[in-house]
Write a structure and sequence with these properties.
Length: 53
């Protein structure tokens, strides 16, 4: 597996985004945002669980 610098990866991603359009990138951003919100809500709300001893 070939290692490429971050700037080359970023340039390649920008070129692919121009060719594909913003639809794929927007979908990825939305999915990551929703998963992040779900994980944040779970992390915050798990402290409110009632313990029945």
């Amino acid at each position: 597996m070939e290692h490429s610098p971050a700037s080359a990866w970023l340039t390649e991603a920008a070129n692919a985004a121009q060719q594909e359009g913003s639809g794929y990138l927007l979908r990825v951003v939305l999915v990551v945002m929703v998963v992040g919100c779900v994980l944040t809500a779970w992390f915050l709300l798990r402290g409110y669980k009632q313990k029945d001893d």
